[in-house]
Amino acid sequence: MSTSEAIALDQVVDTARYPLTELDSAERQAVVSHARRELAALGCTVLPDFIRPSLRDVLRQECSAIAPSAHFDAETVNVYNIAVDSQLPQDHPGRRTFLRGNAFVARDRIPASALIGRLYSDTAFQDFVARCFGLPRLHELADPLSGLVLNVVLPGMEHPWHFDTNEFTVSMLTQEAQAGGAFEYCPNIRSAQDECFDDVRDVLDGRGEQLIRRLALQPGDLQLFKGRYSLHRVSPVGGEAARHSAIFAYSERPGVIGSVARTRQLFGRVLPEHLAAEGRAVRGDRLLD
Predict the structure, then answer these.
(1) Angle 277-134-188 (CA atoms, 0-180°, nearest 5)?
(2) Strands 213-215 and 183-186
(3) Which CATH superfamily groups domain 8-276?
(4) Residue 67: CB partners within 8 Å, gap ≥ 6?
(5) pLDDT in the model for residue 1
(6) Does pTM surpass 0.70?
(7) Residue 247, pLDDT score
(8) Per-residue confidence band for 74, with pLDDT thresholds at 50, 70 and 90
(9) What residue spans define the domains of the chain?
(10) C-alpha separations of 116 from 15, 171, 174, 234 in Å
């Protein structure tokens, strides 16, 4: 039994501050309304101390224990996660490349009894997150590897500028870097109708400082983020400790499974479920990545 397995979920989450099950309470409605306003205006909101501070060490220890199971991959990428030798105009931001050196622990290596495992599958948590995003419901990914992952960025590495495939992202820092490792993002730098290549190029070339926001995250904070339209990165990590963050992946529709190529890139392996689902993905927009 893990340390957290014997702890009730309402002892894990500060439910006085974030009432997960009190659907009609004024406190919950206020939190949800505030989150929606920030997501609409800034594309991001942070719920500080979502995990009780007294459990920060448990959160860190559980995730540190599974971090060695991460699949590490260092590769040259661009912000759109398309082939770096794609035929693009000379001044296209997709021609700018970066070394991505981060690692992911797949869902099947994360104990269901761990704090992040219990949160991911909790229906009250799912409903709360859905309401914050203004959605009627969220579904766990059917993908056996990428539904819940732990992202590990080692010292000297970074997760460079990129866009997410999903419209929304739910994450939680579980271990800070000793230096660097800041979350930086450009709110709503593009839309479903406009790639805004000029603004993206300015950020990549160091001329778009006014477009960048930086978050001071603490372990246990819950971050809700619209990463499909906001360029973002984790800056280079310094010191001796890796940066760890849990990523809770949900979808508006059931049955979502990642592509074979992307799954192999992230985890170094694929399962029969990925092979069976290949070719059935449906795009919600025509953005580049």
Answers:
(1) 80
(2) antiparallel
(3) q2cbj1_9rhob like domain (2.60.120.620)
(4) 105, 150, 152, 242, 244
(5) 39
(6) yes
(7) 96
(8) confident
(9) 8-276
(10) 16, 10, 9, 20
